[in-house]
Amino acid sequence: MDQISIFNETKHIINEELVLSLIKSVLTSEQKQGVELNVIFIDNQAIQTINRDYRGLDQPTDVISFAFCDSPSIIEYEYELLGDIYVSVEKAHEQAIEYGHSFDREIGFLTVHGMFHLLGYDHLIESDAKIMRQKEEGILNANRITKRE
Predict the structure, then answer these.
(1) Do residues 83 and 119 lie in contact, with contact meaning Cβ atoms separated by under 8 Å?
(2) Which pTM value belongs to this model?
(3) Distance between CA atoms of 40 and 88, rounded to whole angstroms?
(4) pLDDT surpasses 80 at 32
(5) 78 pLDDT exceeds 80?
(6) What is 3-142's CATH topology?
(7) Are strands 3-8 and 35-42 parallel, antiparallel or unpaired?
(8) DSSP per-residue letters across 109-128
(9) What are the distances in angstroms from CA 21 to CA 49, 98, 138?
(10) Where in the chain are the domains?
(11) Is residue 52 helix, strand or coil?
(12) Angle between helices 89-99 and 44-55 (to 10 degrees)
């Protein structure tokens, strides 16, 4: 069983059932179980502070993932500690409008994107980006979260 915590630190309503369902879909697709992770929904000011402090970029971003364990631990835990995903709800609203799809779709995409980062995927080079995008779209499509809802 997984330990998944969702924290909404904003006044916006988040479809937590959707977020949880997408996380479980990613974990199933990647054959991961027994994991612990947090998804924290915050505003632009909070994510800008995180982005500045940890990435040296003094601007808001849409999602930031922090993997807990990049190397094996000598301590045995009940769960594999994956990490934290921070999502800017304000950025999600802006991008949903910009891309012409629903807020839920954007929150879903950002959550799935953050999950794949926690699992070691990245998009710094084109071939890796293509793999990551295919996996993201596969999860969204499997959950009937289309670009045009």
Answers:
(1) no
(2) 0.91
(3) 9
(4) yes
(5) no
(6) Collagenase (Catalytic Domain) (3.40.390)
(7) parallel
(8) HHHHHHHHHHTT---SSHHH
(9) 29, 25, 14
(10) 3-142
(11) helix
(12) 100
Kindly state the DSSP code that residue 65 receives in the 8-state scheme.
E
Contacts 24+ apart (CB under 8 A), 16-22: 18/104, 18/107, 18/108, 18/143, 18/145, 19/107, 19/108, 19/111, 21/143, 22/108, 22/111, 22/112, 22/115, 22/139, 22/140, 22/143, 22/145
Q: How far apart are CA 5 and CA 36, in angstroms?
A: 8
Tell me the C-alpha distance between 102 and 84, whole Å. 24
Which of 41-45, 57-61, 74-78, 80-84 bottoms out in mean pLDDT, i.e. has the lowest? 74-78
| Identity at 21, one-letter amino acid code | S
Give Cα separations from 122 to 32, 83, 89, 119, 126 (angstroms). 18, 15, 22, 9, 10
Question: What letter represents residue 64's amino acid?
Answer: I
For 48, the token pair is: 């800008």
User: Do β-strands 63-67 and 3-8 pair in parallel, antiparallel, or remain unpaired?
Assistant: unpaired
